[in-house]
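We were asked to recover a plausible sequence for a given structure. The inputs and outputs are reproduced exactly as logged, with field labels preserved.

PROBLEM: sequence recovery
POSITIONS: 141
GIVEN STRUCTURE:
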């Protein structure tokens, strides 16, 4: 009976140690443990926050099904994404994300109807979401 108790405790300890050493268990910004992680340089966070403010304003307009002022908010997003892409290193996942946001915001700015605006907004969302999947604590900040 005593041997089974030690064996069970040993197995539990091994499982816990293996779980803690899994990829990404202690990940933080700019620390790419997993290959598909989108991370950004700390200097880009301010620009990402500006992108998200414009994103929220655009979302509110689309919920109301209004195209008014979307071009203004899209221009804010273009400006922030452009600045963010300049602070990221070449060929980084963060720069790639910012360039896709820039492209989507440009399309959104030129959209002439609600369907085009929604499609462009969806592409921006699909670009931003992987960052927050990699770093969910950023949503709190």
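RECOVERED SEQUENCE:
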């Amino acid at each position: 009976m005593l041997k089974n108790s030690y064996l069970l405790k040993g197995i539990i300890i091994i499982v816990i140690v293996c779980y803690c050493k899994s990829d990404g268990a202690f990940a933080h910004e700019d620390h790419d443990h997993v290959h598909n992680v989108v991370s950004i340089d700390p200097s880009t966070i301010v620009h990402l926050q500006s992108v998200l403010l414009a994103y929220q304003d655009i979302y509110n307009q689309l919920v109301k099904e209004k195209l008014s002022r979307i071009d203004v908010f899209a221009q804010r997003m273009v400006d922030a994404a452009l600045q963010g892409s300049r602070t990221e290193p070449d060929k980084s996942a963060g720069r790639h994300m910012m360039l896709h946001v820039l492209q989507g915001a440009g399309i959104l700015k030129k959209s002439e109807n609600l369907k085009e605006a929604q499609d462009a907004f969806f592409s921006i969302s699909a670009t931003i979401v992987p960052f927050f999947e990699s770093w969910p604590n950023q949503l709190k900040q």
